[in-house]
Amino acid sequence: MENNSLGYWVWFLFIGGVIGWLAGLIIRGRGFGIIGDIVIGIVGAMLGGWMARIFGLYAGNSLGAFLVALVGAVVLVGLTRLVVRNA
Known about the structure:
This protein is mostly helical. Helices cover 75% and strands 0% of the residues. It has one domain. It has helices spanning 6-27, 34-54, 62-83.
């Protein structure tokens, strides 16, 4: 799929939403709403990728990339809870 196709962006937002929703379930027991889940998932994926590079990890397949993104989102939710009491 090309990066500028509509299907790519729909898939990108869908996966971001799933990752954010799962991170919300893992940390809080519920999601953050559709927009919140997508934002948490996308930012968490970037954080997870950054952390994986620091630790020298390589997510060579789709499952590995998904898990790296999920770990990043869980860390992001955990950090958010430390900073904001009601998050």
